[in-house]
Specification:
With 324 residues, the protein is of the alpha+beta class. The protein folds into three domains: 3-60, Winged helix-like DNA-binding domain superfamily/Winged helix DNA-binding domain (Arc Repressor Mutant, subunit A, Orthogonal Bundle), CATH 1.10.10.10; 67-272, BirA Bifunctional Protein, domain 2, CATH 3.30.930; 276-323, SH3 type barrels (Roll). 32% of the residues lie in helices and 27% in strands. It is built from nine helices and 14 strands. It has helices spanning 3-12, 20-27, 31-43, 67-73, 92-101, 149-168, 230-234, 240-261, 264-273, and strands spanning 47-51, 55-60, 83-89, 109-115, 134-140, 173-175, 179-182, 185-197, 200-210, 281-285, 288-297, 303-306, 312-315, 319-321. Strands 3-4-5-9-8-7-6 form a seven-stranded mixed β-sheet. The longest helix has 22 residues, at 240-261. It is elongated. Bound molecules: biotin (BTN). Biotin (BTN) binds at residues 91-93, 115, 118-121, 124, 126, 128, 135-137, 179, 189-191, 207-209.
Length: 324
């Protein structure tokens, strides 16, 4: 049985229940085959209401990106100019990396409806259900020394935070280095992977995950305390195309400003959006935990932390946890 046959049956019975028996008769398949097909459609983003007595009712169809609509909505000049839209991929990072290796220009953007092996920082995974979020990777070719690459992560977090705040009106802050939080729960993640030769960056793949329309049922139980979505926090769905278009415009402008004026303006913007400054925290580094109060961002992208004895320490890479 293919999706088309069962979906056209629901289309002809819009808003009403169709019994499993009727579906199986009309399509000439077993009840088990009907149930399996419904499960597949649910995995693809279709929502059904199921009733033991009445059967199935189609509640909503996945709201997918259209390459045409995206193309028409983009307001950026270079970012997203070359755009590839995929349905299901392992990770958009892999596709963008392959494109970069083949010489794809700066601004080449890969977007997928779903990632089956989405990657997070520190070797973690990234939940990327179909049609519910923005899962994308962009090729950047900055002419900066390799040790400045962390600046790009912070720049990207600033642009994303400013754009999402503007679109949703929600109170969103940045937890160092680049997590975007609403009431302490993460709504997006940024993963920069770079390829270098000697001291020169050949390219950077900037991966961005925005949990736009995920519902609580999309998260495993243990993540619900730490993660949320714009939909859960805002109590409504958001247009993913608008989210992408607005962010790309903001990101491109900030990237241009950075190329003209350096990292200074990004530091000021980052500090204004940060939820990490001035609070006692614990920084988990491979060399051990550090307790202190972050007081500002440094030119290198490191965070400056005041320790209990009044001295300062620059921390380049760590997980920021709650106070000790
Ligand atoms: C984090 O751990 O906070 C970073 C998460 C980055 C997720 C995005 S989704 C698009 C791109 N493809 C991936 O596999 N990861 C990044």
């Amino acid at each position: 049985m293919n999706n088309e046959a069962i979906l056209s049956l629901f289309d002809n019975n819009s808003g009403v229940y169709v019994s499993g028996e009727r579906i199986s008769q009309e399509l000439g398949v077993s009840r088990t085959a009907v149930w399996k097909q419904i499960r597949k459609l649910e995995a693809a983003g279709y929502r059904f209401e199921a009733s033991r007595k009445l059967g199935y009712r189609l509640m909503s169809v996945p709201d997918l990106f259209s390459a045409e609509e995206l193309g028409l909505s983009l307001k950026s000049d270079v970012f997203g100019k070359s755009l590839q839209l995929f349905d299901s991929v392992e990770s958009t990072q892999n596709i963008a990396r392959a494109a970069a290796e083949e010489g794809a220009p700066e601004g080449t953007l890969i977007i997928a409806e779903q990632q089956v092996s989405g990657r997070g920082r520190m070797g973690r995974g990234w939940i990327s259900p179909r049609g519910q979020g923005v899962w994308m990777s962009m090729v950047l070719r900055p002419t900066i020394p390799i040790h400045f690459a962390p600046q790009l992560t912070l720049l990207t977090a600033v642009a994303l935070c400013r754009s999402l705040k503007r679109i949703t009106g929600l109170s969103i802050g940045i937890k160092w280095p680049n997590d975007l939080l609403i009431e302490g729960k993460k709504i997006s993640g940024i993963l920069l992977e770079s390829a270098a030769e000697d001291e020169r960056l050949r390219y950077v793949i900037a991966g961005i995950g925005i949990s736009v329309n995920l519902e609580e049922s999309d998260y495993p139980e243990e993540l619900l305390a730490k993660a949320t979505s714009l939909r859960i926090a805002g109590g409504r769905k958001w247009e993913r195309t608008e989210v992408v278009a607005d962010f790309l415009k903001e990101w491109e402008q900030l990237y241009l400003l950075y190329q003209e004026q350096g990292f200074g303006p990004v530091i000021t913007l980052w500090e204004a959006l940060s939820v990490s400054l001035g609070k006692q925290v614990r920084l988990i580094t491979p060399q051990g935990d550090i307790a202190g109060v972050p007081v500002g961002l440094e030119e290198s992208g490191a965070i400056r932390v005041e320790l209990a004895d009044g001295t300062f320490k620059s921390v380049f890479s760590a997980e920021m946890g709650e106070p000790l």
